[in-house]
Design brief:
- The protein starts with a helix and ends with a helix.
- The protein has 22 helices and no strands.
- By secondary structure, the protein is mostly helical.
- Helix 6 crosses helix 7 and helix 12 runs antiparallel to helix 18.
- The chain is 72% helix and 0% strand.
- It has a domain of 208 residues.
């Protein structure tokens, strides 16, 4: 066995054992109802395996060059090389402090995805993943499989944070069902386990959600909460500002309406959406560069142009958005349909698309089962029902409206999948769990 390969395997095992040990020792992961250490370890193993399978699928079935994670990894290795040449320049690029110095252009030119092929006022989120790979390489010595372990520990901790937030407001009788969808929803497990923006997004989104709730709804307060809130707000702004922008009015509506009846709940959410929409319009009026309607239209138009230039095989449509409200309103609902029903079984032309089709079929089955086993009490009894419903509609509609590709829709909608699951279990009469809990396998993972 070559010495380099032996060292890579040794480090892989070492880091895996280290993070597995941390799952059992860190207080953040302890004493969580419905989530034992064995379950956390199982989810961690599955996520690492999903990340490895992504690497293998795109290495041996597809062309590696089309895989986004490989592009970010390759540019990250170039950035890591700057550390050996000039540690000062490396720190400048990593931190963004004086990162526009003229001498750094030499390094930027070597990276293919540091800059976008089009101009946009929105930050280029490719750089976050490239920086992650460069920092990870300091400890991995350039092994993509070790980077896979690092990002999956972060994304798993983000899912735990989402779970802990949901647990505060969920029906206690349905705790049994919560982990299954939050940690094992197919698209969330696969795309959220790769060395992609989505893994970092889940990490940042989960912690932001948890610490925001700590600040606004808990009885005690710590200064550290503000620090975490600011850090993860900044990270979300860099990664996927739309995920945060769509979540904010939903969360405000949730806090305003938790103790109301359905009519007042709907009114609270509508008022929250209206206020945020007016604020966004005012920002665009005062600062035309940040006109959110123009940003959305430009992003979608550039996305379509980019897909056509690449002759991507998963193009759903080539319609261009227009800067008028009627067009955006119509395309939003059309986008919701794309997110829910595309790709369908007749579009399963590859392994990855077939996987996405199966996930959509799961979603269709969930929605149909809700129609037949609808739990009416959930409408007023569980405030999470409304939070999950509105966020799924907003994110699914936005993603389907902006992204013209199957692959992009499947990836970009995963932040809403935990809330789709929460909506489903609170709106559906599910089988009793007493018999399941007597199962030996269940007992093993919950000791």
């Amino acid at each position: 066995m070559p010495k380099i390969l032996f060292m890579e395997i040794f480090l892989f095992i070492l880091y895996f054992v280290l993070f597995s040990w941390m799952l059992g020792k860190l207080s953040f992961f302890k004493d969580i109802p419905g989530l034992s250490y064995k379950m956390l370890l199982l989810f961690f193993v599955l996520k690492v395996m999903a990340g490895i399978s992504m690497i293998l699928v795109y290495t041996h079935i597809y062309e590696l060059e089309i895989a986004d994670f490989h592009k970010y990894f390759r540019d990250g290795m170039i950035l890591y090389g700057v550390l050996k040449e000039s540690p000062i320049d490396f720190l400048r690029i990593i931190t963004g402090i004086q990162a526009s110095a003229e001498n750094l252009a030499t390094y930027y030119d070597q990276m293919d995805f540091w800059n976008r092929p089009w101009e946009s006022p929105v930050y280029n989120d490719n750089r976050v993943v490239i920086r992650f790979n460069a920092l990870a390489a300091v400890f991995s010595f350039g092994s993509i499989y070790i980077h896979n372990i690092f990002i999956n520990f972060l994304s798993l901790s983000g899912l735990v944070a989402i779970y802990k937030f949901i647990l505060r407001f969920a029906d206690k009788d349905k705790i049994f069902w919560l982990p299954l969808g939050i940690f094992l929803f197919p698209g969330l497990l696969f795309w959220g386990s790769g060395i992609l923006k989505e893994g970092l997004l889940i990490w940042a989104f989960g912690y932001w959600m948890l610490y925001t709730d700590e600040i606004f709804s808990r009885k005690y307060f710590r200064f550290s909460f503000l620090f975490y809130f600011a850090f993860f707000s900044f990270l979300l702004f860099l990664l996927k500002p739309y995920a945060l922008a769509l979540w904010l009015p939903c969360m405000v509506g949730f806090y305003l309406s938790r103790d109301y009846k359905p009519i007042k709940i709907i009114f609270s959410y509508i008022m929250s959406f209206a206020v945020f929409f007016i604020i966004m319009l005012m920002v665009g009026w005062v600062f035309p560069k940040y006109d959110f309607i123009q940003i959305i239209v430009s992003k979608q138009n550039n996305f379509v142009n980019h897909a056509l230039a690449l002759d991507a095989g998963s193009i759903i449509h080539t319609k261009y958005l227009e800067t008028n409200f009627l067009n955006l309103f119509v395309e939003f609902w059309r986008g919701l349909g794309y997110s829910l029903f595309r790709p369908h079984p007749f579009e399963a032309y590859s392994v990855v698309v077939a996987f996405a089709v199966l996930e959509n079929m799961l979603i269709w089955g969930m929605l149909l089962s809700t129609l037949f086993y609808f739990d009416r009490q959930g409408i007023s009894k569980y405030p999470l029902f409304w939070l999950g419903l509105f966020y799924v509609i907003l994110l699914f509609g936005f993603v389907g409206m902006v992204a013209p590709l199957h692959g992009a829709i499947v990836r970009y909608k995963i932040p809403a999948l935990p809330f789709l699951w929460v909506f489903w279990i609170h709106m559906t009469r599910l089988p009793a769990t007493e018999k399941i809990k007597k199962n030996k396998l269940w007992k093993f993972f919950n000791k």
